[in-house]
Design goal:
The protein is α/β, with parallel strands linked by helices and 165 residues long. The chain has a single domain, classed as 3-Layer(aba) Sandwich (Rossmann fold). Helix content is 34%, strand content 22%. The chain has a 6-stranded mixed sheet with strand order 3-2-4-1-5-6. β2, α2 and β3 form a beta-alpha-beta unit.
């Protein structure tokens, strides 16, 4: 399975007096623009997920919808999973993914969870990456329990936007 991990874009600052509770924090206008450019970079890479899964938090759900639009994936088929919450156990994500019968899946989520998922997937004892907001990684998963994956690529949001042209 090819596993794409896409971190949510720039969200409203927690210190902003207009900031809602964390689950309802949303992408800023700049966050939407940069995420859209990064998602177009994913499309330029030719990824074709059979499934998109998102954290239920608003900013990740918005990121999944932006990715779906760029990748011509139906919004109505986006699934949500608590396994992609910021503090979720990364092994839970891998267990959930192991039950899927798809060749490519894109997960939209948060730091530190996505970096922990990468570490767990490649069998590292500590976090080895630092996905930036609207950054993405691709892993080729041979097994999920224990995680036997290979990190194929990791892109910053800027490199994804450059790929998009």
């Amino acid at each position: 399975m090819l596993l794409y991990l896409f971190r949510h874009g720039i969200a409203i600052d927690r210190e902003d007096p207009e900031c809602p509770p964390d689950p309802r924090r949303f992408l800023t206008r700049k966050g939407v623009e940069k995420t859209r450019g990064a998602a177009q970079g994913l499309a330029a890479l030719g990824i074709e997920p059979e499934l998109i899964v998102s954290s239920p938090y608003v900013r990740a759900a918005q990121t999944a919808e932006i990715a779906a639009e760029a990748l011509k994936y139906p919004h109505a088929r986006i699934r949500q999973s608590d396994a992609l919450l910021p503090s979720a156990d990364p092994a839970h994500v891998l267990r959930e993914l192991s039950r899927l019968r798809v060749k490519e899946v894109l997960c939209a989520g948060h730091a530190p969870n996505l970096d922990e998922v990468i570490a767990c997937a490649v069998g590292a004892s500590a976090v080895i990456t630092s996905l930036k907001k609207a950054g993405a990684a691709c892993l080729e998963m041979d097994s999920f329990s224990p995680g036997q994956g290979t990190l194929i690529w990791l892109h910053t949001p800027r490199s994804l936007r450059l790929l998009a042209g």
